[in-house]
Amino acid sequence: MTLRLKSILANAGIKQGTLAKAVSLSRPALNALINHGVLPTGCDQPRVRSAISVFLLESGAPAVDWHLEEEPACANTPAPVSPPQDPDTATEINDEEIQMLLRKQTLTPQARRHFGLTADPFADPASADEVFLSADIRYVRESMYQVARHGGFMAVIGESGAGKSTLREELLDRIRREEQAIIAVEPYVQAMEGTEKNGKTLRSLHIAEAVMSAVAPLAKTMSSPQARFAQLHAALRDSARAGHSHVLIIEEAHCLPLATLKHLKRFRELKDGLRPLLSVILIGQPELQVKLSEHNPEVREVVQRIEIVNLPALDTELESYLTHRFKRNQLPLERVLDTSAIEALRAKLTPTRGAASLLYPLAIQNTLAAAMNRAANLGVPTVTADVVRGV
């Protein structure tokens, strides 16, 4: 159901926020329905389904045939069907707040002077020491490194802004720092989409070209597919015998078509005797986990062989993360925000109704930057809970 409803909205050009408003459902609850097939506990599920179908028909789009779909599961949270609360006391995140959290927020010069910042604490890490590593993030980092060194097939899945790209960049930097004999292959994915209708799909021939360019850059690529893959196998085998390991890293892997996902299993089957010649790391958003569902028979051969590692939210690591970010400025966290502000930030990014935590680095940074700008405008010495609630 999730992929079908998402496809209907995309094909009809209907924004999720528009649908959520039309059927009186919060944006987080609609996201949970679309991406994970869940509705809040206690909600009037027949009403929601009927309202969605009516809205789609009135918009000229086909209605979802709910009788052919799985019954949505329910999350363990109350339904967002009550009237909006006063903004000063509400704890759930509404659509407008979500848009603010997703929008880029930059510290103003006034805020930098106000807090005595000589550098942007929210800038991308410039060295390995600046990468925040919680226990969960460290596990994902080490898993990626072991796959790159010793072989494997894994998918790293996390929400937008969870830090997936940072871990990929740190992996490549670590390979260089430690002078590992690992050749990383990264196909360009700038225009990649899941279907030809929306953009260009990444196919196995494109992956073969990227591998050949990295492993044997001076070789002239064969024209026929059969000869090209034989050439690829020989190049990987010769490089491995020379002492190299090879890892294919694909960003935005949630945009890969199912055919390419299946072909990756065949790339993994390229061996020199018993030794696999190419490891694979996929990096993508939660839609990738939907594609790799054990209930999807089209990719069962891949699902049986791939390790899925999720990059979780910083629910219990918020204070440690903030302390780490301001460490680059040699600024104690208490000079920027007090304990009440930390809890207010946690509450603001932890929806109470129908959605998962938003405590990911990018959302945290955007929200705190907005709060710091507001504190500077108000002239208060530190960010307080009231300042956080006001952004």
Automatic annotation (TrEMBL):
Protein name (record): AAA family ATPase
AAA+ ATPase domain mapped to chain residues: 150-307
GO molecular function: ATP hydrolysis activity
Lineage: Bacteria, Pseudomonadati, Pseudomonadota, Gammaproteobacteria, Lysobacterales
Pfam families: AAA_22 (PF13401)
Entry-linked Gene3D superfamilies: P-loop containing nucleotide triphosphate hydrolases (3.40.50.300)
Transmembrane segments: none
Top-level lineage group: Bacteria
